[in-house]
Design brief:
The complex is a heterodimer of chains A (115) and B (110). Chain A is mainly β and 115 residues long. Chain A contains no helices and 11 strands. In chain A, the strands form 2 sheets. In chain A, strands 2, 4, 5, 6, 9, 10 and 11 form a 7-stranded mixed β-sheet that branches. Chain B is mostly beta strands. Chain B contains no helices and 11 strands. In chain B, a hairpin with a 6-residue loop joins strand 4 and strand 5. The chains are: A mainly beta (115), B mainly beta (110). At the A-B interface, strand 5 and strand 10 of A face strand 4 and strand 5 of B.
């Protein structure tokens, strides 16, 4: 079975550029989560969707970050303009059913470096 | 606010030397406690879900237990391939998201 698919795996870009990260959740899962992981702050939840609707975006750092889920099989996380402090590994995860005890299944992440 | 604290931050064991990782939590009603394993360059991989105090789950050399305040991940006779970061997360009954701890990085030397 295909797991959560993220692209690109690595992204290196210059400060000020727009960055778009992509995620394809596991088919049939109706909750999707975006996380950021750094050594200093660990795994931070940025935003999560239930049935394609954003439920909680309180973890989004600032207005430079935006996320969309146009359909059940695709989501994007966009940073515009990017800054060096955005450098981190960004993970997407999905789970079978929101507001339940189903575990999350993670992709292998996008390693983002902003120069 | 839900909180998860994992200890120790890092643990170094010799192959075959059993030990335990701790996950202390505070949550307003527990829906589930999750253990994940994360290898370098990879996303967290789900291991176990525990739902209520007294529950235990086992998988190979790993056994997870749960009380009302903490969970333990017991590792029996570990091997070098068990080296990874182990993450604990809790989900409250009224939440659609999980709160993660900072993890314990386990290194098993041959």
């Amino acid at each position: 079975d295909a797991g959560v698919i993220q692209s690109p795996r690595h992204e290196v870009t210059e400060m000020g550029q727009e960055v778009t990260l992509r995620c394809k959740p596991i088919s049939g899962h109706n909750s999707l989560f975006w996380y950021r992981q750094t050594m200093m702050r660990g795994l931070e939840l940025l935003i999560y969707f239930n049935n394609n609707v954003p439920i909680d975006d309180s973890g989004m750092p600032e207005d430079r970050f935006s996320a969309k889920m146009p359909n059940a099989s695709f989501s994007t996380l966009k940073i515009q303009p990017s800054e060096p402090r955005d450098s981190a590994v960004y993970f997407c995860a999905s789970s079978l059913k929101g507001y339940s005890n189903q575990p999350q299944h993670f992709g292998d992440g996008t390693r983002l470096s902003i120069l | 606010e839900d909180q998860v604290t994992q200890s120790p931050e890092a643990l170094r064991l010799q192959e075959g030397e059993s030990s335990s990782l701790n996950c202390s939590y505070t949550v307003s009603g527990l829906r589930g406690l999750f253990w994940y394993r994360q290898d370098p360059g990879k996303g967290p991989e789900f291991l176990f879900t525990l739902y209520s105090a007294g529950e235990e789950k086992e998988k190979e050399r790993l056994k997870a237990t749960l009380t009302k305040k903490e969970s333990f991940l017991h590792i029996t006779a570990p091997k070098p391939e068990d080296s990874a970061t182990y993450l604990c997360a809790v989900q409250a009954t009224n939440a659609g998201k999980s709160t993660f701890g900072d993890g314990t990085t386990l290194t098993v030397k041959p």
